[in-house]
Recover the amino acids of this structure.
């Protein structure tokens, strides 16, 4: 039971509002010591976990790049480009983005877009530019719709890719109950759901356009 001491360290650290990173390191170290591991072994476990999951550190490279681009006017330029296009609307813009998000997710490219990579620096400002003059509440609603569009595109597009974790999870679950279904079949059955999600959300986006044309709240 002593190995659970790490949980106590976590609870105490979060309760005292200490930086999560040292709290997690301290909790892991405490559990390792309680389990009889020496310091060298604990560090080796940390190194092995980092090496196997080093792709996570890519976010520390991406975020500063996005921050620099925003500082130098990326959002303003994106907003201005869309505002200058005739016929551009929030709904049409987000429908095209959702289609691209679904298609790329369907072939396994789930990390090339997302809230941090594309929605905040590009898609949301472009949607605001297409919407025209809005109050603060209206802009926040447009941003929320842009984020929701990304999520829907990813969620229903990634299941078409047969090597995604959700497909493998469903296959494992069905195998437990004697249903031998191959991943390709599960992926193919995900296509109607993706199409339905696209049509339903596209309808919501077109209704959003209609409300904006009438001068109503988004």
């Amino acid at each position: 039971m002593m190995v659970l001491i790490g949980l106590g360290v976590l609870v105490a650290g979060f309760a005292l509002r200490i930086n999560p990173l040292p709290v997690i390191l301290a909790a892991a170290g405490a559990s390792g010591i309680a389990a009889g591991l020496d310091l060298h072994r604990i560090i080796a476990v940390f190194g092995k976990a980092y090496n196997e999951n080093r792709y996570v550190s890519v976010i520390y490279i991406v975020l500063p790049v996005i921050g620099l681009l925003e500082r130098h006017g990326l959002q303003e330029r994106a907003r201005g480009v869309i505002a200058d296009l005739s016929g551009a609307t929030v709904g049409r813009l987000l429908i095209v983005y959702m289609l691209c998000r679904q298609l790329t997710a369907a072939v396994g490219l789930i990390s090339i877009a997302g809230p941090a990579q594309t929605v905040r620096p590009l898609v949301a400002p472009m949607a605001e530019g297409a919407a025209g003059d809005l109050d603060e509440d209206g802009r926040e609603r447009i941003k929320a719709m842009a984020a929701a569009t990304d999520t829907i595109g990813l969620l229903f597009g990634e299941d078409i890719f047969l090597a995604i974790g959700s497909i493998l999870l469903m296959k494992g679950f069905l195998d437990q109950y004697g249903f031998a279904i191959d991943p390709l079949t599960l992926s193919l059955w995900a296509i109607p759901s993706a199409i339905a999600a696209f049509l339903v959300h596209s309808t919501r986006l077109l209704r959003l356009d209609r409300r904006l044309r009438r001068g109503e709240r988004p």
About this structure: The mean pLDDT is 82. Residues 7 and 110 are 33 Å apart (CA to CA). The first helix runs from residue 5 to 15.
